[in-house]
Amino acid sequence: MRFDPWDPEFVAHPYDVYARLREQEPVSFYEPTGQWLIARHADVDALLRDRRLGRTYLHLGSHEEFGREPWPDWQEPFWRVVGVGMLDVEPPVHTRLRRLVSKAFTPRMVESLRPRIRQIATGLAEAFAERGGDVIAEVAEPLPVTVIAEMLGVPEADRRLLRPWSADMCGMYELNPPVEVQRTAVRAAEEFAGYVRELARARRADPGDDLISALAQVVDDGDRLTEDELIGTCVLLLNAGHEATVNATGNSWWALFRNPDQLDRLRAAVRDGDEGLVGTAVDELLRWDTPAQMFERWVLEDITVGGVHIPRGSEVALLFGSANRDPEVFADPDRLDLGRDPNPHISFGLGIHYCLGAPLARIELAESFTALLRAAPGLDLVAEPEWKPGYIMRGLKALELRTG
Asked: Number of structural domains, the chain?
């Protein structure tokens, strides 16, 4: 098998290919996407921190100046929304946005959500324990949707809209997405932007106890978020904080069923109230089968990686899934070890774009695993799952479980 992000067999198990790349071609050009694949942990780590690379190049020059085709005009509504979020901008704009958003999205605020997250997770787990079924549809999806909806202050009647919008927008980030997928992403971005715009205007006039109100009111030395920046921040919170968490939950349960000794270990930790092991388990599950297999960067100045020259205007594909299994960093990397410590995985990124929502994701995953194993300690697999076709946002279609 070779690197092929459209091959279902590769998507289901890319790790043997990654091992070959690390050993034989740690830096290689992949013609179908026009990207340089970066496979080793040390290189991925370094490039994530290297300011000669960026999530965009438009702060330095036009598409044409970087040898790229401009986006078609019909995509403008998508990039107008997504392109102003802090994930897709560079300093000084990124520095300003992160400073402003961090004033509202604080560690204390996130930690204060734990009791409510626990309550939601417990309710979902107890309902699931009564009947079993698809743990992704019944638990993994509703938990982060409910959390992000309550954080943003989305009325309960509208929450059903968030999951389709998120899934449709994320389609744009797959490799060479078909035109119909791109158009669906544009439409979803327009609809979500319009919805948040109305909500934000209402909250500016009449603030509530929610994140949109906080973002709309936050001021730092006279500076505040523009309306488009507020919307872009909400898009980022929805997509990064929801889509990735859903896939991480499903991937993690599938990993545990393939490693029954570690599932037994987690069961015992939950039974004994060992929150320390639950915490290290979350990080190890994110390392072992990360939902974010690849993250891309643009080369803003000529660089050399592993002795290979990569010119300005190129795109590098940082293989997170490969870096997380690098034996130079992780002892026995293909073994799932829920107590692994230290665990310098890069599933949340590194550098200035390190995931602002990492603490929230860790809380959601820990509370979800704990609630399910308390409510249904005898969880068992019904059938081997199938993977969705996406590679960059990699996750299962469904995961059918019985509750024992």
From this structure: 1
Angstrom distance (rounded) from CA 96 to CA 124: 38
Rg (CA), the chain: 21
Tell the burial category of 30 from Cβ atoms under 10 Å away from its Cβ (0-12, 13-18, 19+). middle
> Both tokens of residue 296?
């891309």
**3 falls within a domain:** no
Cα separation of 361 and 252, whole Å? 13
Per residue in 320-336, pLDDT (tens digit) is 999 999 999 999 999 99
Q: Please give the structure tokens belonging to residue 256.
A: 């545990």
Question: pTM here?
Answer: 0.93
3-class DSSP assignment, residue 318 = strand
Calculate the average pLDDT of the chain: 92
Give the strands of the sheet with 315-319, arranged side by side.
27-30, 35-38, 315-319, 294-299, 53-54
Beta bridge partners of 134: 400
Beta bridge partners, 28, equal 37
**Domain extent for 12:** 8-402
Give the CATH number for residue 121. Answer: 1.10.630.10
Residue ranges with strand state E in 302-398: 303-305, 308-310, 315-319, 380-381
